[in-house]
Design goal:
Blueprint: H1 9-28, H2 47-53, H3 68-83, H4 86-93, E1 95-102, E2 105-112, E3 123-127, H5 142-151, E4 155-158, H6 170-182, E5 191-196, H7 198-213, E6 220-224, H8 236-239, H9 253-262, E7 285-290, H10 296-308, E8 313-318, H11 333-349
Parallel strand pairs: 3-4, 3-5, 5-6, 6-7, 7-8
Antiparallel strand pairs: 1-2, 2-4
Helix pairs in contact: 4-5, 5-11, 6-7
């Protein structure tokens, strides 16, 4: 592990003053005017990833259902389409899946057909993404399948409650319930938690809550492109708007989904915007994002906050990738590399 840079007395005050002056100047500066331009697909990505990057903007990016009931048909339609892809993923990556209930919470257990000896006492907990309103049931499994297949870990994937079934803090409660149960199945020193988007935020929130409740912490976590700030603070909400072909805009569907789940709760609460939480004492963390990701800033800000808190934090950024492109196609070399990198990180930090 790299030692943190030392801070020397006189420099600390001078640097703080410089940062303060720079911050004020930035607030007073007029917005930068950027001319319209065409953005080609990067030439150095795989054909599979090029197809994903070059896809048109998500067709329903600007739908804005205001209730859980209105979200339900949207979620069901998306889930039906995605669930059709799951059997092929399971077959290609040689993973078995089993539905279960853990202390009253719906979940899936994923097991690779071949598990190396060093992973036999290890257990991962997965929380899926979907803006807190999408990807119920098997539709939430692709990322868990990739981790089980590429990393060859046993994974519990939490099928947490979402609107209209329940609102905040239901998903958080379900995730922490499964975490508590999982710590009775394996030594927390041999465990990790991971998830993407809302699942990335839930991963961070689970650690915050575990700290609050005095629960054992995982040995490592992997929050991918986390929805770490639901208040729309972050440079990439502007710079990558209409460039990210998944989330597309900070005023799109995902923002409204999070609001429906929050159900009037303060969006700046660290449980919903973990970047505002206390990250001292967090386990080693590996974060993943892309250069076109609308949540690039959400990810970078978490990385910086973790480093400032003295936490080992590793950041991987995919060339040309929009939000969560790395969980779109298991045949893309970039996808394999992301999950092999996470597996490498977990292997460094999990006991055996």
């Amino acid at each position: 592990m790299i030692d943190r840079p030392r801070r020397f007395g006189g420099w600390t005050g001078a640097l703080a003053g410089l940062v303060a002056v720079t911050s004020v100047a930035a607030q007073e500066a007029p917005p930068l005017q950027v001319p319209a331009k065409s953005v080609p697909v990067p030439s150095d990505v795989s054909p599979q990833m090029a197809k994903i990057i070059g896809a048109p903007l998500r067709s329903n990016w600007n739908i804005q259902p205001k209730t859980g009931e209105a979200w339900k048909p949207v979620a069901e339609a998306g889930a039906a389409a995605l669930a059709k892809l799951v059997p092929g993923m399971l077959e290609r990556l040689k993973v078995k899946v089993e539905r279960t209930t853990i202390d009253g919470v719906r979940a899936f257990i994923l097991t690779p057909e071949e598990m190396p000896p060093e992973n036999r006492n290890r257990l991962l907990v997965h929380v899926h993404g979907g803006c807190y309103v999408l990807n119920p049931g098997e539709a939430g499994l692709p990322e868990a399948i990739f981790m089980a297949g590429f990393g060859r870990f046993k994974v519990i994937s939490v099928d947490y409650r979402m609107p209209p079934e329940a609102t905040y803090p239901a998903a958080h409660d379900d995730a922490i319930t499964v975490w508590k149960a999982a710590t009775r199945m394996a030594d927390p020193k041999n465990m990790a938690v991971f998830g993407t988007s809302a699942g990335g935020a839930l991963t961070l929130a689970m650690v915050l809550r575990a700290k609050q409740e005095g629960l054992p912490l995982p040995a490592a976590i992997a929050p991918g492109t986390p929805m770490s700030d639901t208040t729309k603070v972050g440079d990439s909400f502007v710079t990558n708007a209409m460039l990210d072909n998944v989330l597309v805009s900070p005023d799109g569907f995902c923002d409204d989904g999070a609001k429906v789940y929050a159900n009037g709760h303060d969006l700046k609460d660290p449980m919903l915007s973990p970047v505002y939480g206390d990250m001292h004492g967090f386990p080693p963390t590996i974060l993943t994002t892309g250069t076109r990701d609308l949540l690039l800033s959400n990810t970078v800000r978490v990385h910086r906050k973790l480093r400032d808190a003295g936490v080992e934090a590793y950041l991987q950024v995919g060339e040309g990738q929009s939000h969560a492109h790395y969980i779109r196609d298991d045949t893309a070399p970039e996808t394999r590399k992301v999950f092999e990198e996470i597996a490498w990180f977990f292997d460094r930090h999990l006991g055996r």
